[in-house]
Design goal:
homodimer, alpha/beta, 6-stranded mixed β-sheet, about 525 residues, elongated
């Protein structure tokens, strides 16, 4: 573990200089490293620190080595044996949230994790606003770059507060983010990401020194390479985290967020696509929608005509987040409160009312909180898009969803959503639930894995080569397929046998023939 | 030539991005370079410059590649084909003067050369004063580092003024300097150079970016490695310039300046030593001494009891520089105005007077300019030291001066001194003059050669390995040998047969038996 990562800490007991051995301090260190089979170069910072540090340390020092993709650079030097304190940072650079992990590089342990809003938000809630803000304006672009860096340093400070570890001694950092985020981190105009012909400036930045990027780590910051404009380093990192590029069986990887990115394949091919999954998944469009923060309804159960809610943070419900919406829709559907086309059925419950102002039906899922017909419609478009993307990419691969042995659902949404609910509403395909995996924050996981195993660098080119990219925008029958997938769970019920069964149970319940509920999470 | 150096300029006609080929701008450039067999990495500066430069240039660009010792870094990018403008800088970083050459790296031509005083002089005329000024004082050390960098930028500006070439587009720079100078350039405390056990901080700095060092070149600054405290990169550079490490015959390299550094050897061994040759060689100690600038007497001939002077700059003589002193002493000696022990003979000429104030004899070599007995004594010590160093290092090598087939006399003094005069006074050994070569500024030459041929990097380790260092300070009979060498030309006249012959001619002249002068330069 401790020898395979992007950084190493080596304790050296050097011979002090003498009349017999007048070798320079620099050579003493290089020689001692060579004795351990390590060829390195000393950074300017280390050269400048040699005196009086070595004398003071009685020539017992620890050097921090940082890998730059091809060789070791001694990036820092400390007195005495500090090899036990060997840390690094892994970052998921999202457009909304940035998550950073402090990693003990000797053991691989996640010492702490912190998440903050991306400070770029000051220049636009959504990516496009930020892109237009910075387009052809070097000053604005620099503001956004600096905001990104400031987000990183804020996280480093938070991690330091929580752990007591001096995070500026973390030798190296691995960042996974989408193409726009990496452009902004480096300070590149990102208009190219969203404009034809979609050839970006740089998608393989690799290693730059912390100093060059303005990030206070002594070693290097590695940014995961991307494959295409909408298929960035966060997805490549997800490949590494899930390892689908090394398996014989077919896997499907789906990072569900504001945008959806998916990859299907195995060790022989990786077919990729990306599309707007819709902000509904993050609670964006829904009127009482909110992010998964305190007060958000994150789970919903309908029992005897009443809602049982799971609320984040042990507080009164203030809104509903993505996983709550999926649960809610699933329950409404299974219990007959909405029909196959997603229309609210006012006769099913007194909680469904005609809300005059909006001139539409709505269901009261919590005191004062209403879920409207238009919210449902919006969400159905989202889930249809998600399903259709999966279906489409499988047909592009000459296969069906049934050929997939493992589904990896990544992203915050993929992590928290109840699998069965997602199947019920036809967002996920109707397969054995054990084949659907929450991949969690696979972008962050892949970043951490690479930090701890530089051998993964060798895999990256292979992954990028395996990948081929399908532009969904260019697909003709996409809309048609999406319409079919807008039903609950799908116009083709044969695709959802388990849902059909549950539906029958739900209908029985509704008819007052109270049977035992057949499922529970 | 243009492909072998530390930098390359490559003109690329890239395909513009299209729906069919959406590769990133970065990959387009890397791909085009790979087509030419070049694996490179783009610097952050280049990444940031890609847009809108590539579009504006219609995807016809020239990249400047800088070698970092192991790989190519694209350090700059320009619109259109600028491959004909390919420049680099070679520097001799001396403690008194800094000389810089602007090199056309396509042809190897020296476009221009400029020399200025080292701005470190503000912190002390001599190196030791500067070292004490900066010892254990980071602020002072930084002042000296900045002064060094300022000297470089001053030279770059001068070269730009003279040539019209934008010197900040010079891709790479090679610097050769002694160990203290390189310490100061990098910002390292240099007290170690002069204090026991003489183990320096760093003697193999290698490649650092211009940015890291504060030097405005887009690529790298390479500093020649040194062998030991008194045997710096300027001498290794001199080895490269003279090539003595590749010859079968024995050569002796002598860089004569305030300090004398010498190397004797061939392809199998290089024995090195260094010692204080004395500032007399640069006109320092002599009362009317001056540097080789306008007004300096640089050559002296004695004809019919009168001095014929060569003066720098077509002006009235204002003092005498090193080569002038050697000539003067040689003429005084050959014509019997000083005896074997270097004592002025007042009866030889009316120009020799007892100068009351100093209570010593002195010779008037130009109107109002006197050369004193004490000046002679000082200079004799200097020349004795120089000769003794050569003699001693040969005996250490188990040989005599007669075994040397070529003498390379480097440094400003070595360049300008009349060889025969130096032989006459016993500073150089009495060998065929064709075997004594002026190596000129071999430090600068080696810097330029490496700039144009990165293959030389491979030779450096070999040179350093061949070298073994003799500390003259530790030699017991050094003083004894020096006393013997303080005579004119030497107490052992058998070592100087040609001088003995010339002496006889000179004596004849003195005796009034005017013969034809047997030599003329």
């Amino acid at each position: 573990m401790k020898e395979n990562g992007l950084s190493r800490k080596i304790y050296l007991e050097l011979d002090p200089p003498s009349e017999e051995d007048q070798a320079s301090c620099q050579r003493r260190i290089l020689r001692a490293l060579e004795d351990q089979g390590i060829r390195a170069k000393l950074s300017l910072t280390v050269l400048k620190a040699l005196y009086p540090l070595c004398d003071r340390a009685d020539w017992k020092v620890t050097v921090s080595l940082a890998y730059d993709g091809e060789r070791w650079i001694a990036a820092a030097i400390e007195e005495g044996d500090t090899s036990a304190e060997h840390y690094g940072l892994a970052v998921d650079l999202g457009s909304t949230s940035v998550v950073m992990q402090l990693i003990d590089c000797n053991t691989g342990r996640i010492v702490a994790q912190e998440s903050v809003y991306n400070r770029q938000i000051a220049f636009g809630e959504d990516i496009l606003t930020r892109i237009f803000y910075s387009k052809d304006d070097a000053g604005h672009l620099e503001e956004i770059r600096q905001a990104t860096v400031d987000t990183f340093t804020e996280l480093m400070k938070k991690l330091q507060q929580v752990t007591g570890v001096d995070t500026e001694k973390c030798i190296s950092m691995v960042v996974a983010g989408n193409t726009t985020m990496i452009h902004f981190l480096i300070g590149l105009d990102a208009f190219c990401v969203f404009s034809s012909p979609y050839a970006v400036r740089a998608d393989e930045p690799g290693f730059y020194t912390g100093k060059e990027l303005g990030i206070p780590v002594p070693g290097f910051v590695f940014c995961y390479p991307g494959k295409a404009n909408y298929l960035g380093g966060d997805i490549i990192s997800g490949m590494v985290a899930t390892g689908i590029h090394k398996k014989e069986e077919i896997s499907l990887f789906f990072d569900v967020g504001t945008n959806g990115e998916l990859v299907v394949g195995n060790q022989c091919f990786l077919l990729c696509g990306a599309g707007a999954a819709g902000p509904a998944l993050e609670g964006g469009v829904v009127k009482t929608g909110m992010r998964a923060a305190a007060g958000a309804v994150e789970s919903v159960k309908l029992t005897d005509g009443e809602f049982e809610l799971g609320v984040i943070g042990d507080t009164a419900p203030a809104g509903i987040c993505g996983s709550g919406i999926v649960d809610l829709l699933s329950e409404l559907f299974i219990h007959g409160w909405v029909d196959l086309r997603g229309r609210l059925q006012p006769e099913a419950s007194g909680k469904i009312e005609w809300r005059g102002k909006e001139e539409e039906y709505a269901v009261c899922y919590a005191p004062g909180l209403w879920f409207f017909q238009s919210d449902i419609n919006e969400f159905l478009r989202t889930k249809a898009a998600a399903y259709t993307m999966m279906e489409y990419i499988m047909s592009e691969a000459g296969m069906g969803l049934g050929d997939v042995s493992d589904f990896y659902m990544a992203g915050a949404f993929g992590t928290h959503v109840r699998k069965e609910s997602a199947v019920n509403i036809g967002m996920y395909p109707d397969v054995e639930l054990s084949r659907i995996h929450s991949a969690g924050n696979s972008s962050l996981d892949g970043a951490r894995m690479l930090l701890l195993d530089r051998g993964i660098l060798m895999e990256l080119d292979h992954i990028l080569e395996l990948m081929s990219y399908v532009q969904f925008g260019a697909v003709e029958d996409f809309v048609q397929k999406m319409v079919a997938a807008s039903a609950l769970p799908h116009t083709d019920m044969e695709r959802y046998p388990s849902v059909a069964a549950r539906l029958r149970d739900g209908q029985k319940e509704k008819a007052g023939e109270r049977g035992k509920r057949t499922w529970r999470i």
